[in-house]
Amino acid sequence: MRLTTKGRFAVTAMIDVAMRQHLGPVTLASISQRQHISLSYLEQLFGKLRRHELVESVRGPGGGYSLARKPEEISIADVIIAVDEPLDATQCGGKENCHGEDGEGRCMTHDLWAALNTRMVEFLDSVNLKTMVDQNLAQGVSIEEVAVVRKPVAPMPVTKPVKVKAPNSVFNLAQNMG
């Protein structure tokens, strides 16, 4: 059993939001920059987190994400399950057909792995985002808001209007000729 990057990145991003949401909505671009997670990957993860009502989004300038509940009410298990991360150490996915569909049923170690699953979920359910924020702050992680580096936009060139002494219509042209 191993936790994939999907679960790791979701937990990391949620801790980032929990640490900085007091400053206002947290942008995915700023999380991406601080945590070195692809912006498109964060967009996918936060879509799932929003559907599971773990985060709320604010659109427009100054928009971003904030937690939908208090940090102490969101467990790490909630985050991992929301992004469809399987928490299962059994080979059969809990179906008790470890030897395949035509096999002899459960393997000899099925109960061991099922017990590990239970302990794993219990542990991850006992740790919440507030605990992780407090732990990170105690370790000296700073929460200064890092401005998103944006490419400067070149100013529009200033053009002075050009006075043209040419007539602007056929009628004016005829008057000037005659």
TrEMBL record:
<dbReference type="InterPro" id="IPR036390">
    <property type="entry name" value="WH_DNA-bd_sf"/>
</dbReference>
<dbReference type="InterPro" id="IPR000944">
    <property type="entry name" value="Tscrpt_reg_Rrf2"/>
</dbReference>
<dbReference type="GO" id="GO:0005829">
    <property type="term" value="C:cytosol"/>
</dbReference>
<dbReference type="GO" id="GO:0003690">
    <property type="term" value="F:double-stranded DNA binding"/>
</dbReference>
<keyword id="KW-0238">DNA-binding</keyword>
<dbReference type="GO" id="GO:0003700">
    <property type="term" value="F:DNA-binding transcription factor activity"/>
</dbReference>
<dbReference type="Pfam" id="PF02082">
    <property type="entry name" value="Rrf2"/>
</dbReference>
<dbReference type="InterPro" id="IPR010242">
    <property type="entry name" value="TF_HTH_IscR"/>
</dbReference>
<dbReference type="InterPro" id="IPR036388">
    <property type="entry name" value="WH-like_DNA-bd_sf"/>
</dbReference>
<protein>
    <submittedName>
        <fullName>HTH-type transcriptional regulator IscR</fullName>
    </submittedName>
</protein>
